[in-house]
Amino acid sequence: MDISASMNSMSNLKLATDLVRSTVFMLLYEKPLHGYGIMSGLSKRLGKEVSPSLIYPFLHKLEQKGLVTSSDVPVGRKPKKVYELTEEGRQLALRLIKRLSALVSLAIEPTLSVCAHCGAKLYEGGHSEVVDSKELVFCCSFCCQAYKNE
């Protein structure tokens, strides 16, 4: 295997791992789940079986960082460990969801504006003002004033 093929393979593996991790956050944002529920949800959403060796270490890391708690809940004959996002974990999941949504929206409906003065790319907001009979967009009022002073 040549180096570029090896790097491409590693890049694909990282992408797949990131997708699985993001999906775990989405699943736990919806409701607390035990390990099998997470595995089942991943399989349904991604259309592929995901190895427990990828999921459980990630859940353990989330628990260590205070983003997830686990508790033993009676399910059937024996208790199962159920994972639930903490408030901090829910906030992180919500930020991830919003960021992903914004990226998808940007790709589908490019609404990117550019500051008329400094060229900064604006995803939202900014300052617009009519200058010389044209409505221009600026990243801030300071750029607007600097543009007028040129």
3D structure, described in words:
This is Transcription regulator PadR N-terminal domain-containing protein. It holds the Pfam family PadR. InterPro entries: Metal_resp_DNA-bind_regulator (IPR052509), Tscrpt_reg_PadR_N (IPR005149), WH-like_DNA-bd_sf (IPR036388), WH_DNA-bd_sf (IPR036390). The chain is built from five helices and seven strands; from the N terminus they run H-E-H-H-E-E-H-E-E-E-E-H. The relative contact order is 0.09. The chain has helices spanning 3-30, 35-46, 52-64, 87-108, 141-149, and strands at residues 33-34, 68-75, 78-85, 113-114, 121-122, 127-131, 134-138. Helices cover 56% and strands 21% of the residues. The radius of gyration is 23 Å and the shape is elongated. The longest helix has 28 residues, at 3-30. The strands form three sheets. The chain has a three-stranded antiparallel β-sheet. Strands 4-5 form a two-stranded antiparallel ribbon. A two-stranded antiparallel ribbon has the order 6-7. The mean pLDDT is 86. By secondary structure, it is of the alpha+beta class. It folds into two domains: 3-108, Winged helix-like DNA-binding domain superfamily/Winged helix DNA-binding domain (Arc Repressor Mutant, subunit A); 113-149, no CATH class.
User: What distance separates the N and C termini?
Assistant: 57 Å
What is the typical, i.e. mean, pLDDT?
86
Strand order of the largest sheet: 1-3-2
Q: Going by CATH, what is the homologous superfamily of the largest domain?
A: Winged helix-like DNA-binding domain superfamily/Winged helix DNA-binding domain
Which CATH C-level class of the largest domain is it?
A: Mainly Alpha
Structural shape = elongated
- What is the domain total for the residues? 2
Number of helical regions = 5
CATH architecture of the largest domain: Orthogonal Bundle
DSSP summary, beta strand count: 7
Topology-level CATH name of the largest domain: Arc Repressor Mutant, subunit A
The helix-and-strand class reads alpha+beta
Level of helix content?
55-70%
